[in-house]
Design brief:
The protein is of the alpha+beta class. The chain is about 15% helix and about 30% strand. A hairpin with a 5-residue loop joins β18 (about 285-290) and β19.
Length: about 350
């Protein structure tokens, strides 16, 4: 995902580009700084018309092949950790047109956002300010399982006040009603860690400068290059972004817009068309899970409010149900929803 002044979301789906109406092709080769074929560079075709992006990998001979692209004017670029290249703009495809472009990679900077979670566990700092090591708790709580450090924490170097505002928002809004709500002490722990690891004075600038980095880089096999995936840009909404996706019987994808988004979104993966179904109120619901049911309706959870909802896509009507109170009078949260073959709704 990409995050700027306003949050932009993109949903990544592995799909087969099988529509016979899509016939455009882009091919070429990728070479490294030494001039030799480069394996494992992503070659990315961005379609600004429908905000759909197709990604493929260069093979052992440095070749890439993107097929069945819809008519559009594309921007073509590469992505390889520690390397850079100039993009190709104004790439026009129509009908069965074919285009070919070669890329010569230059050495670039390895960024903290390029790390895998495992690499982050090994390389990010571990502080002992309060006789605690915050890195492991950080990676095993909602802070990391819901918000990857690569996209949510490395792009902007917030100071202590900035990180505190964000951790408190997560605890007081997004974790309201959940049993694992952070204590004030734990909030302070995480603020301290985030400021140390991702604050304005975090060092070094690149993980590549650390002696352990090279030992954590794992080579991939030629077979692993045999993939393609498509990204759909969900930009424009004010929430935290698409959360997960579930396919219905017609091939449409249903996505909860978590955070402040307060909407369920239907995606047509062939055309990238988005249909939004917003909640009729502004209070943060924290829509966390969505599932289409056999009767054509769509169920979703409102994790921040402890409620579940049922959407009728035909009428856009939304019906909400409050969770039953427990013996002590408290209400349970609503995390994940599923519907069985008999139409019964199950909520965790």
């Amino acid at each position: 995902m990409k995050f700027a002044d306003r949050t932009l979301g993109s949903l990544v789906l592995t799909v087969a580009l099988a529509s016979t109406a899509w016939a455009g092709t882009i091919t070429g080769t990728v070479t490294g700084p030494d001039g030799k074929p480069f394996m494992g560079a992503f070659v990315i075709a961005e379609n600004p018309q429908n905000k759909m992006t197709v990604n493929v990998l260069s093979d052992a001979q440095g070749r890439y092949h993107i097929t069945r692209l819809p008519d559009a004017t594309y921007t073509l670029r590469t992505s390889a950790i520690g390397y850079k290249s100039d993009p190709k703009t104004d790439v026009r495809l129509a009908g069965e047109a074919a285009a070919s472009f070669d890329f010569a990679l230059q050495k670039g900077m390895v960024r903290w956002g390029d790390l895998t979670t495992y690499q982050g566990r090994q390389l990010l700092p571990k502080t002992k300010d309060h006789d605690l090591s915050y890195a492991d708790p950080f990676f095993t709580t909602c802070l990391q399982s819901c918000h990857s450090f690569q996209t949510r924490m490395t792009p902007t170097a917030f100071d202590e006040a900035g990180w505190r505002a964000r951790v408190q928002y997560m605890r007081d809004t997004m974790m309201a009603g959940e049993g694992n709500r952070l204590s004030d002490e734990r909030v302070n722990d995480f603020v301290s860690y985030l400021t140390t690891a991702f604050g304005p004075n975090a060092k070094p600038a690149s993980p590549e400068d650390m002696p352990q980095y090279k030992s954590l880089v794992r080579p991939a096999s030629p077979k692993a290059m045999n993939i393609a995936y498509v990204e759909y840009d969900f930009g424009g909404a004010s929430g935290l972004g698409p959360w997960s996706a579930v396919e219905d019987k017609d091939g449409m994808m249903w996505i909860p817009y978590y955070g402040r988004g307060n909407e369920v979104v239907r995606l047509n993966p062939k055309t990238a068309e988005l249909t939004r179904f917003p909640l009729p109120f502004s209070r943060t619901a924290g829509i966390h899970s969505v599932i289409p049911s056999p009767d054509g309706t769509v169920w979703f959870t409102e994790a921040a409010l402890g409620r579940i909802g049922q959407l009728n896509p035909a009428t856009k009507e939304i019906t909400e149900f409050q969770n039953t109170p427990l013996a002590d009078g408290k209400r349970t949260g609503a995390h994940t929803v599923r519907v069985d073959n008999g139409g019964l709704v199950w909520v965790s």
